[in-house]
Amino acid sequence: MYVKLWVRNIVFLTIIFTIIHYVFSPKRGLLRAILGGVITGMGCSGIVSGIYLSRHIEAVSASPYVEVEDAFDVYHVRNVELRLPYEETFDLCIKLLDTIGTHKIREQNFATGKIVAMTYRDWWDNVFGTLILFHMKKIDAERTKLQIVTKPVLPTCIVDKGAALIHIKKITALLEEMGSSH
């Protein structure tokens, strides 16, 4: 995870520092500006990535819903079988969204069994928020299969400080309290 974050930041910071080097000393030439941008970008990327990763680890380890094997992923999927009719499962999923904080339901389709919600966080923690997707399928009159997916809104996000993991763990913990079967 650190390497992916570091490489992504190198690209971004190298471009920025190359432009800065070239603007402030154009007489040195473009090749020297690129070299200076790469060297400065690599160092700064290491520092920025280390800070961001340590903040991610701190946030994930502070959560009561986290298991070690999921700690460094930002895309999470859980499949749950509920002993509830389809209609009650759909309503329950909407109610569960209220337990995770500030959110907006972007799509709600009873016929297809799909609910898409987006959470909001502040600029320091998770700028773009987290998508929470519920996919429901009726098994029989008294049972419903439910798939829950959480992921960052921005698909290029590598580190989300455990936001997606915390949301899915909290939702599945609440479902288990209500008597779901796996």
Walk me through the structure.
The protein is an alpha+beta fold. It folds into 2 domains: 2-62; 73-177, 2-Layer Sandwich (Alpha-D-Glucose-1,6-Bisphosphate, Chain A, domain 4), CATH 3.30.530. It has helices at residues 2-24, 30-62, 86-97, 163-177, and strands spanning 76-82, 103-109, 114-119, 130-140, 143-152. The chain has a 5-stranded antiparallel sheet, with helices on one face. The longest helix has 33 residues, at 30-62.
**Structural class by helix and strand composition:** alpha+beta
- Number of alpha- plus pi-helical segments: 4
Oligomer: single chain
Mean pLDDT: 81
Series of H and E elements: HHEHEEEEH
Sheet of most strands: 5 strands, antiparallel
Number of strands: 5
Termini separation: 30 Å
> Which fold name fills CATH's third level, the topology of the largest domain?
Alpha-D-Glucose-1,6-Bisphosphate, Chain A, domain 4
Poorly predicted regions? none
CATH class group of the largest domain:
Alpha Beta
- Record the strand order, biggest sheet: 1-5-4-3-2
What overall geometry do the principal axes of the alpha carbons give?
elongated
> What proportion of the residues form beta strands (DSSP E)?
15-25%
> What percent of the residues sit in helical stretches (DSSP H or I)?
40-55%
